[in-house]
Amino acid sequence: MHGNSLRSGSIAGLPADSGGALPALVLVGLFFVVPVVALLLRSVTDPEPGLQNYAALFGSGTYVRVFLNTFLVAAVVTAVTIVVAFPVAWMLAIMPPALGSIVFGIIILSMWTNLLTRTYAWMVLLQRTGVINRTLMGLGIIQEPLPLINNLTGVTIGMVYIMLPFMILPLVGTLRAIDPMTLRAAALCGATPFQAFRRILLPLSLPGIAAGGLMVFVMSLGYFVTPALLGGTSNMMLAEMIAQTVQSLLNWGLGSAAAFVLLIVTMALYALQLRLISAKRPAGGL
User: Fold this and answer.
1) Distance of CA 234 to CAs 62, 66, 122, 231, Å?
2) pLDDT in tens, 145-160
3) What is the pLDDT of residues 154-212, one digit of tens each?
4) Does residue 5 surpass a pLDDT of 80?
5) Membrane-crossing residues (predicted)?
């Protein structure tokens, strides 16, 4: 009986299979916990012990503007991504399975392309002499090239393109779970397509929108390559500021403080996402 209880229960308060999780815990400790602790220590010890790096970070109008701009860009990118991704996800949810698999594969394939390559492609397309401006001018729609790069417009276009798959994937799963008979019943009751969308489809798809939107927002907060190449100095984001602070100014203490703040914000938002997902999960089970 005693041997059976040891095999089926726990030893000294640890699960019986805790030994299998030990390598994973060691890896997490070495490659996540240790660097984070080192980052925190450097932010409060370089150049001297104290909180002067955090005081400089939140006491400077320039750094505060970078923080606000980071959240602004992330919010704009998230909103535009939701608007663009929703019809694509709905199309994938209702189209025949064979065609849907092909379109879904194309979307996934875009994620495998190198990020820097995709960003440089948008630089070529969006510049004043790029394909977009030349096409619009050739059609007579515009007379002068549009400023589509080195501003918020260019950053938004480039980041939305990159973030679309991360928004489409959770939305497709949510929309496919909606019973089509619900919308058909609404139409039979006299609801217009817009009313059916606003009062039935949109509320039922909110879990997918919330999950995908929060994931896109969190990922956008730490983006570096796309804002650096497609944005301008007035649209600098926190990741770019950290890189310049460390590489150009050699201010490791201030850069560590900014990176630690960004990490805390990201982890808080991720914890919120997990809480929302667990709240939507039906109670039950063991």
Assistant:
1) 11, 9, 19, 8
2) 888 888 888 999 999 9
3) 999 999 999 999 999 889 988 888 888 888 888 888 888 888 888 888 888 988 898 88
4) no
5) 20-41, 62-86, 92-113, 120-142, 154-175, 208-230, 250-272
Distance CA 88, CA 103 (A): 10
With a CB cutoff of 8 Å and minimum separation 6, the contacts of 75 are: 217
Tell me if the pTM is above 0.85. no
- Name the phi and psi angles at 86, rounded to 5: -60, -50
C-alpha to C-alpha distances, 189 to 184, 192, 195, 200, 202, nearest whole angstrom: 9, 9, 11, 13, 18
What's the CA dihedral at 166, 170, 176, 181 to 10 degrees?
Answer: -120
Instruction: Please give, one letter per residue, the 3-state secondary structure of 97-147.
Output: HHHHHHHHHHHHHHHHCCHHHHHHHHHHHHCCCCHHHHHHHHCCCCCCCCC
Contacts of 88 (CB under 8 A, 6+ apart): 107, 164, 168
